[in-house]
Amino acid sequence: MAILSMSQAPLNAITDTRVRDSFRLVPLSTQTLEGDSEDEVLELLDHPTPLHPLTQPSASASLPPKPPLPRSSGKKEHQRAGKKAKRARKRQLEDQGDPGAGKMRSRLSKKYATPFAVTIKFNAISLRAAKSAFVGARQRIREHHDRQWHLQELFDRGFDLIPWDGKTTHAIVDSEERIVSILAGRPHDPTWDDVVADATSALHEAGLLADVPKNNRQHSRGDYPTIAVGVSYGNGQMVPGNLKHTAHNETVVAALLANKSIQRIAGFANSALKFYAPKLFRFYADHVNPLFNHYPQLRRNFINSIFPAATFNCGPRVVDLEHVDSTNVPYGLCPIWAGGQFDPRLGGHLILFEFKLVIEFPPGSTVLIPSGTVRHGNVPIQQGETRYSFTQYCPGSLVRWVQYGYQSAKACSAEGKAKLIGKPEDYWKWAIGLFSKLSELQQDRTQVFKS
Ligand SMILES: [Fe+2]
Question: Domain of life, per the record (predicted)?
Answer without folding.
Answer: Eukaryota
